[in-house]
Amino acid sequence: MDLEQALPRFDLHSAMELTQTKSAALWRVQDRHGRDLVLKLYHGPDPGNEASGLRFMQAVAQIAPNLVPVIYRTEENAVAMEYVVGQPLGDALRRGDYMQEHSLLDTARQLHAHTLQPISGLPHLADWFQRLFNLRFASDCPSDLKADMQRAQELASALLATQRNVRPLHGDLHHDNLIGAGSCYKLIDAKGVLGEPEYELANALRNPKGCETWLRDKDQQKQRQRACCAALSLDPKRFAQWVAAKCACSIALRSGGVLKADPEADLLNMFLALADEV
């Protein structure tokens, strides 16, 4: 379904393009009641691997509608949802207002205060980490990076084998997936995955993009990890290990399956060192 087909089928009009991603085009539209909505049109015939995220968002909306945009309708490769007024939380941190990270922690705390009903079709974290376990190393891959990635593979394997309190997770909970202003933010772009709570904020420690110096400040990262653990009552050791494992998994994904080098090699090394220190 393209835009010309989706507008009449969903009874929408006044489309203005918001952005294009690898998987979809997003349009700001209005419905017949004059409400502003977002129309997301996936490039493929269906939402693909984002389908589990949509199911997660719909499940959250049933028990905590203040935390997610309302999804009004889904059909084939199209989704119509509430338009959330505001900016990504990451923008505040990119301006240097690092204290605003509390909004991420507050939102995560609210999300995990609720017990979601079982959601069908969610992948397991083990499925996601196959990309890390299947990684190969190019002959010119730096030895330090190769050693760190192999260490992260061992960490991820041990974590996956010993998960506790497995539950549905957002799966990509970081600053640029929170939209809003002041103290009111809503979660977007959930991935939807089954895993333990210690994983939920692991990707936040690599974010937001555009704060590279701050992200590589070891003392700041120590404080951030403590704050995440306090917010969600997490096991500090397991959380620090998940942070390193997630960083390695992202490196593996970017590599295309064969690792030569990566701009986050130094970040992974720091996360591994922090995990050792807990």
Please provide a written account of the structure:
The chain is globular and about 60 Å long. It has helices at 3-10, 51-63, 89-94, 102-112, 125-128, 130-133, 143-161, 212-215, 218-232, 236-255, 265-277, and strands at 12-20, 24-31, 36-42, 71-75, 78-82, 87-88, 136-137, 167-169, 178-181, 184-187, 193-195, 258-259. The chain contains 11 helices and 12 strands. α4 (102-112) runs parallel beside α9 (218-232), α7 (143-161) crosses α10 and α10 (236-255) runs antiparallel to α11. It is an enzyme of class 2 (transferase). It comes from Pelagimonas phthalicica. Its EC number is 2.7.1.89. Pfam families: APH_6_hur.
Question: Would you tell me which CATH topology of the largest domain applies?
Answer: Aminoglycoside 3'-phosphotransferase, Chain: A, domain 2
Mean pLDDT value: 95
What count of structural domains?
Answer: 2
Helix content: 40-55%
Protein name: Thiamine kinase
Keywords: Kinase, Transferase
Organism: Pelagimonas phthalicica
Enzyme class: transferase
Short description:
The chain is an alpha+beta fold and 278 residues long. The chain contains 11 helices and 12 strands. 42% of the residues lie in helices and 19% in strands.
Annotate the secondary structure layout:
Elements: H1 3-10, E1 12-20, E2 24-31, E3 36-42, H2 51-63, E4 71-75, E5 78-82, E6 87-88, H3 89-94, H4 102-112, H5 125-128, H6 130-133, E7 136-137, H7 143-161, E8 167-169, E9 178-181, E10 184-187, E11 193-195, H8 212-215, H9 218-232, H10 236-255, E12 258-259, H11 265-277
Parallel strand pairs: 7-12
Antiparallel strand pairs: 1-2, 2-3, 3-5, 4-5, 6-9, 8-11, 9-10
Helix pairs in contact: 4-9, 7-10, 7-11, 10-11
